[in-house]
Amino acid sequence: MTLTTEKSKASRTIPQTDPHASYLAYQDGLDAAWSRVMQRGRYVLGTEVSAFEAEFANFVGAAHAVGTASGTASLELALRALGIAQEDRVITVSHTAVATASAIKLAGAEPLFVDIDPHSYTMDPNLVEDAIRNDRKRRRIPTIKAILPVHLYGRPADMKAICDIASRYDLRVVEDCAQAHGAAIDGRQVGCWGDIAAFSFYPTKNLGCFGDGGAIVTNSGDLARRCRTLREYGWDERRNSRELGINARLDELQAAILRVKLKHLDADNERRRAIGDVYRRGLQGSSIVCPSTTARALHVYHQFVVRCEQRDALRIRLAELGVATLVHYAVPVHQQGAFQSCAAYGGLKETERAVETILSLPMFPQLDIASARYVADCIVHSANNVVSSAC
Ligand SMILES: *Cc1c(COP(=O)(O)O)cnc(C)c1O
Question: Which of 74, 260, 281, 368 is buried most, with the most CB atoms less than 10 Å from its CB?
Fold first, then answer.
């Protein structure tokens, strides 16, 4: 590619993500949906929420879905519904959105971080088992009560290994599915592997509303009932708070919007995979490392995260060429102020190494294929320049 064609294209910037484009793509259905809610006059926990809950549970392949105010609230309520509380520890990863660890703390428990597998960016199951063995050896009363894997970037964590460990040690499993709506292992979707799962519908997620929203998914009627109580002040049928709950309700506008967008989720995820294929082909033979995949795990590319040397220089060069990128996440959770006192088992070498080289390329279903090709061309071109100018 010549610099002149680059420059003419760079007059507009390709965003890293673009929820407004998803509004324009489905505008007719969305406008009708929110207008219907406005006219009906019920705005919180009504027929749109119950209908969405049934449709979303059906999509995931689980018995129950409970709409909530956010992914963070979903995780917190899921943990509390399982009875996780003070003195308990929950094994999770530090290479994730901070909300994963916040929710554990908000439930009153403590996160215990383990390292990631450097290829999948998800929890390394071997370390999970080592951490549990170590806990049992050292403490008369075991402190680890649950495992909280994150299906980061849309790639499923190794749920077979994790669920196997959980059943051997009688631990609960909470799946963080905030980035993985529709991802699956051997045809079974994430969200129905563990005891309970949390989803976020933040606008940029694979299924996003236009505000905040979330859902808890489970096959257990008891857990679903507990979550419904906890999301609304701990109320029973008589509006008597028998236990301490919070306000974490999903509203009707967001539910109506989600019902429209859910119909397009499979096609949207297909489109993310098509963009991923364009990136893979375009970056083949370069020094850029593309995400690893397996035949059994269906990746839904919430993010397309590559690894590259001199990442920061590459980012600047791409920005000059009109390609926006982000780093998910620049600071591992265990190095952030609120979590510095949290324990880690076995060191977090791969977590700390990943943040040096990861880069999230533009990825959203409305990104056109020509733009994706341009992004890949710019990366190959820039990576060569960046490396040679550093020599
Ligand atoms: C977005 C996200 C959350 C939190 O969801 P909110 O709806 O923003 O509260 C939790 N975990 C992961 C992995 C996320 O990406």
Answer: 74
- Whether 253 and 34 have beta carbons less than 8 Å apart is answered as yes
Ligand 1 pocket test: pick from 100, 200, 206 the residue with the most ligand atoms within 8 Å of its Cβ. Answer: 200
CA gap 366, 77 in Å, rounded: 33
- Report the distance separating Cα 386 and Cα 319, nearest Å: 13
Do 318 and 325 contact (CB within 8 A), yes or no? yes
DSSP H stretches of helix in the chain: 3-9, 19-25, 27-40, 47-60, 71-81, 98-106, 125-138, 159-168, 221-230, 252-262, 265-283, 311-320, 349-357, 369-390
State pLDDT tens for residues 46-57.
999 999 999 999
Torsion angle of C-alpha atoms 17, 19, 23, 24, degrees rounded to 10: -30
Say whether pLDDT at 88 is over 50. yes
Ligand 1 centroid to 250 CA: how many Å? 15
List CB contacts of 362: < 8 A, sequence separation 6 or more. 14, 15, 16, 17, 323, 324, 325, 371, 372, 375
Indicate which atom in ligand 1 lies nearest the CA of residue 202.
7
| Kind and range of the H or E run holding 305 | strand 304-307
Substitution site in 75, 202, 250 for ligand 1 pocket (most atoms within 8 Å of beta carbon): 202
241 has which bridge partners? 235
Longest dimension (CA), the chain: 72
Q: Decide if 182 contacts 300 (C-beta within 8 A).
A: yes
Predicted confidence (pLDDT) at residue 97 exceeds the cutoff of 70: yes
- Percentage of the residues of the chain whose pLDDT score is greater than 90: 93
In whole angstroms, what is the distance from residue 308 CA to residue 285 CA?
13
**Binding site membership of 179 for ligand 1 (Cβ less than 6 Å):** yes
Spatial contact of 180 and 299, defined as CB atoms under 8 Å apart: no
Helix or strand (DSSP H, E) at 196: strand 196-200
The residues facing 90 across adjacent strands are 111, 146
pTM of the model: 0.96
Alpha carbon nearest to ligand 1 atom 4, residue = 71
Q: Where are the alpha helices (DSSP H) in 61-158?
A: 71-81, 98-106, 125-138
**Number of alpha helices (DSSP H) and beta strands (DSSP E) in the chain:** 14, 13
